[in-house]
Amino acid sequence: MSQQQTRNFCIIAHIDHGKSTLADRLMEYTGQVAKRDMEAQLLDSMDIERERGITIKLTPVRMCYRKDGTEYTLNLIDTPGHVDFNYEVSRSLAACEGALLVVDASQGVEAQTLANCYLALENNLEIIPVINKIDLPSADIEGAKKEIEDTIGLDTTNAPLVSAKEGINIKDVLDAVVDLVPPPQGDETAPLKALIFDCQYDNYKGVIIFTRIVDGVVRVGTSVKMFQTAGKTFDVTEVGIFAPAMQPVDCLKAGDVGYICASIKTVSDTKVGDTVTDAARPCAQPLHGYKEVKPMVFCGIYPADGSKYNDLKDALEKLKLNDASLTYEPDTSVALGFGFRCGFLGLLHMEIIQERLEREFDLDLVTTAPSVIYKVFTTQGDVLFIDNPTKLPAPTLIEHIEEPIVRAEIFSPPEYVGDVMGLCQDKRGTFIDMTYLDTRRVRLTYEIPLNEIIYNFFDTLKSRTRGYASLDYELKGFVTGKLVRMDMLLNGEVCDALSVIVNEERAYARGRQMAEKLKDAIPRQMFEIPIQAAIGNKIIARETVKALRKDVLAKCYGGDITRKKKLLEKQKEGKKRMRQVGSVSVPSEAFMSILKIDD
Amino acid sequence: MNSPSVYVHIPFCKARCGYCAFSSCTDMSLTEDYFAKLFAETDYYADRSVPVYTVYIGGGTPSSVPTEYLDALFDRLRRNFDLSRVREITVECNPESADDKLFECLVRNGVNRLSFGLQSVNDATLRRIGRLHTYRRFCEALQRARSFGFCNVNADIIIGLPETHADFIRSVREAAALPLTHLSMYALELHPGTPLFEQSGGVDFFDGDEQADMYDEAVAVLARQGFERYEISNFCKEGNECKHNLNYWREGRYFAFGASASGFVGNARYVNPRSVKEYMTTSVSQMHSFERQVIDPNEEANEFVMLGLRLEQGISGSEFAARYGEDFWRFFLTADKLRADGFLIADGDRIKVPSDKFYVINSILAELWKSQ
């Protein structure tokens, strides 16, 4: 099939606007999946994606569609909608010529949609607006169209009006893709030039490269190399397409979207964004690739069982392979032993990675409180970037500290505006703007320190607005803050894994909350355990775990020593599983307990 | 080998108590067959090579079976073991089944110690936990026992029953004033499947702190009445320690017969089949290998400490070294730290747990064993 009959496109939509459902319908309509095999949200292959109803990873799929007697190949590359996964979006955009902009007829254009849409425009993609959820009683089709025209400047005259849920007008969408998305313009005879837009690791096949062929052809036996690891060449063992399961084909040509296997065993040999070319006949220039993303949120991740360090290391390596935005480096903690300091794009990203590590790699983890990255200006005139509280220099060596500030847009029904404003004030927010978008929606704009956002902001926002408010934020810059390191002391000893950097004024409340949480999470032991929050030498909060007064007094009934011994062995094993902070045994749950504090 | 003890389990009870999770049996029709099996077992494992130190007939309710069986049992024990130098023979009794006929039987068989299940002096509590006796009935039984010459008598009291803190203290106070030489005071354990477990939903009637308070108060009351604590849960008037139990706590050896009985012979511990039914169907030659565990010296050292530290006087450092070939403080790497933190005391040759730390002995032992 020639490039003239190929269309590569993606879908841009805000969370909940029905992107995954529409993708499912398109596949169903083109017969890609038999109806009986349909599982809701087919492209969201990870359990976490289905459970949370969100897309995290981009997923490609190939569909065949006949229009006016011609057979077309449509490659859909699904994209995530959440702000944390912007990076993934930019990756799929680079592999496409067109994008469907799905807008919920009852909600209109959301901030995140807008951001992704601009990304698509920058990439010269043809954008086709699609109005979804027209079946809802609250649908306002004309309003949604007008908003698209006003805010993005797209003509909506011929925009397909659909209900992905009810399967209404799906054909219109496919026709629009064929008619409006330009076919790829690659040169099949030119040297191979292919973009790596994602990777996966398979125990048998090694690294599987998800690719968009820009120029040339790749087939089994082709010897390929990557630009960033130019020294190594790999012989292609399999090429194929996503149907949506991987299906081998003879070759992939310019304009195609598919996968390449080449017995690549070392994960670090492939980098997302890199260009694959023919080793014997390389192309002159690599593709642009992606710009490096900077992680915004950091936390320590440790195996609950210290002997699983290498398993954790392998798992992170494999996740990194198809999530280039994840960063990690080895770290050690006195309390938690060997682990990693990991960087994430945002809080959701962090949660997802933690969940994937636990589920896909069967690891038990202990994570430390998330931190942002601080700019520390030392009295020596140096500027340090600190993402780990334990690395913060002594106060006497610090001239001042700057913290990241985000511009947060919160959409809320008008009745909760007071609550939302109260929350933003509590979180050291600076009011910027309030706009009534219509009678049902208000947009509040605040500048808020990121370290307040990552500390329970989202959960509190949801609970104060009964789940109605939504939040988008983008990094605005760094501003000077009164920041200090707060340590937690257990029985007089600092537990490094519990240290946090906080705004000085908030430290008292935070210290008290953390001490209370720890008090509940640390079991009573043979001696009294003071739990203290301290800034430097100054104690700002204290709780006490009272000494255990009585444990089981198992009777040696009729001399049954064995039973008693078993009880004690169990107790001993339980003790071994706990972390030792000085003389105090701390269960893993205690480290996690401070992450969830209700305001 | 030092003189071993002998334990015999009589699982029969007229009724099952609300908290009981032991091997017990209310089907008295099985008595004949059970004793036949028990005799066969003692015949099979007969050992007259060493004199027996103590004998303990426990249950269940040994006093609930017709005295002929008890007579026959003692005959059997005398035939199969050397009881010529036995120091103590205890039989557990319940007040409602302790009559003159029983006492006569026990006297003629040389029994010199009785142990009564009193549990509480509060009749409402006794009814609630399914006991068949009243406090008054207990006092009468005790008096009759004394008239037969039994002056070494124990009563069991349970801490943490569904009664008030004050009810419990009253039990302790009243019991301490009775002509008893020994009191055992164990905390109630709620076992799944027992009526009290169902009633309470498995949640202790008193939490650990309250139980510790109750213990402390009881210890003080008993001390004023001349009862000294010699083991975490056991109190006696001077010189009336239970020799049989002391043998357990000193890592001594003992034969055990009957359903669910646990023995320690040579280098192995064994537990007989727990249920009466299973016991009856297991051949006597298999009985002591049914659930058997060889205790290596290292493990024995752990046990020695686990049991010995329950005693007020603790363990003897020189005995530990003689038995296990190593100094206690070197054997347990965490021992020094525990001593420094006040959880262990070295008092001459004795190594002990301070009495105010008795209630957390499990934590102390777990800490000791951890270093193994």
Distance between the termini of chain B: 27 Å
- Say how many strands of chain B there are: 17
The counted number of beta strands of chain A is 33
CATH architecture of the largest domain in chain B: Alpha-Beta Barrel
Stated plainly, the CATH topology of the largest domain in chain B is called: TIM Barrel
| Overall number of domains of chain B | 2
Lateral strand order in the biggest sheet of chain B: 9-10-8-7-6-5-3-1-11
CATH class of the largest domain in chain B: Alpha Beta
N- to C-terminal distance of chain A? 60 Å
Interface with most residues: A-B, 30 and 47 residues
Radius of gyration of chain A: 27 Å
Please identify the structural class of chain A as seen in this structure. Answer: alpha+beta
Multimer state: heterodimer
* Beta-strand content estimate of chain A: 25-35%
Please state the overall shape of chain A, judged from the principal axes of the Cα atoms: globular
Please provide a brief summary of the model.
The complex is a heterodimer of chains A (about 600) and B (about 375). With about 600 residues, chain A is an alpha+beta fold.
Write the layout of secondary structure elements.
The complex is a heterodimer of chains A (599) and B (372).
Chain A: E1 6-13, H1 19-29, H2 47-52, E2 60-67, E3 70-77, H3 86-93, E4 98-104, H4 111-122, E5 126-132, H5 141-151, H6 170-180, E6 193-202, E7 206-215, E8 217-219, E9 223-226, E10 233-235, E11 238-242, E12 246-249, E13 251-253, E14 257-261, E15 275-278, E16 297-303, H7 309-322, E17 327-333, E18 337-344, H8 347-360, E19 365-367, E20 371-372, E21 374-378, E22 383-386, E23 398-412, H9 417-426, E24 430-436, E25 442-449, H10 450-453, H11 457-464, E26 470-481, E27 483-490, E28 493-494, E29 500-503, H12 504-521, E30 529-535, E31 538-545, H13 561-577, E32 579-581, E33 584-586, H14 588-593
Chain B: E1 5-10, H1 31-44, E2 47-51, E3 54-59, H2 67-80, E4 81-82, E5 88-93, H3 100-108, E6 113-119, H4 123-128, H5 135-147, E7 153-159, H6 165-177, E8 182-187, H7 195-200, H8 208-224, E9 228-231, E10 234-236, H9 243-249, E11 254-257, E12 262-265, E13 268-271, H10 276-281, H11 284-287, E14 292-294, H12 297-308, E15 315-316, H13 317-324, H14 328-331, H15 335-340, E16 345-347, E17 350-352, H16 361-370
Parallel strand pairs in B: 1-3, 1-11, 2-4, 3-5, 5-6, 6-7, 7-8
Antiparallel strand pairs in B: 8-10, 9-10, 12-13, 13-14, 15-17, 16-17
Helix pairs in contact in B: 1-2, 2-3, 6-8
